[in-house]
Amino acid sequence: MFNLQANSLLLSPITSRLILGASLLSLTSCAALKQTKLKDTEVFYRASTMDSFVPKPNEVPIPTLTTIPARSKVIGHFAYTTPKGSQFAMDAAIYNARRVGADAVVVRKLEEKTTPYSYYVAPETISVPKTRMITQPIWIRDRNGVPGHWEPRQRVETFYVLEQRPGHVVSGTNHRTTIDAVMIRQK
User: Fold this and answer.
1) How far is CA 134 from CA 68, 137, 141, 150, 154, in A?
2) Tens digit of each residue's pLDDT (9 = 90 or more) over 16-66
3) 158 CB contacts (<8 Å, ≥6 apart)?
4) 72-82 vs 45-47, strand pairing mode
């Protein structure tokens, strides 16, 4: 079938380092983009205590729980509604928990709601600008006393046309995800 030589499969050390570096750079840029999107959710966190804690690194897993365990202290509250779905809401809660140094997130409510909408857009008449090239003769006067002459010149002419747009119905759905969570620390 294929005749591959053993040394054709081996990469030079420089080439392998370049490939590794490019792949790591692409992964970090994706993580940085996600962090940037989650940064907007910081305004939805409210601290419950005056204590401040060291932020957790991204490698530290933050568990999500449904009840507050014994010997734990609530340090903040996170409530947020988003059209981006439940995965984004959970990522935002974990991001904020890491940012404030929480040990875990207790999700009290994660609710998704889809509501239909429909409205009528009335018919309207609008004025639409149109352009066209027209040729128009102009009188060219000679400078040396010789009689002038007519010469065709082109120019752009703008005119307006009334356009009737019919009425129509617009319908669809709005999807919202609401999360209500508290951040906790172990005592």
Assistant:
1) 79, 10, 22, 16, 6
2) 666 666 665 555 545 556 667 888 899 999 999 898 899 999 899 999 999
3) 129, 130, 131
4) antiparallel
Distance from C-alpha of 100 to C-alpha of 79, rounded to nearest angstrom: 15
Report how far residue 172's alpha carbon sits from residue 119's, in angstroms, rounded to the nearest whole number.
Answer: 10
What is the CB neighbour count within 10 angstroms for residue 81?
A: 13
Please say whether the beta carbons of 33 and 59 come within 8 A. Answer: no
Phi-psi group of 47: left, alpha or beta (phi > 0 → left; psi -120 to 50 → alpha; rest → beta): beta
CA 124 vs CA 47, 121, 159, 165, 171: distances in Å: 51, 9, 19, 5, 19
pTM of the full structure: 0.59
Tally of helices (H runs) and strands (E runs) in the chain: 3, 7
The CA distance from 159 to 187, in Å, is 76
- Beta-carbon contacts of residue 172 (< 8 Å; ≥ 6 apart): 116, 117
Distance CA 125, CA 61 (A): 59
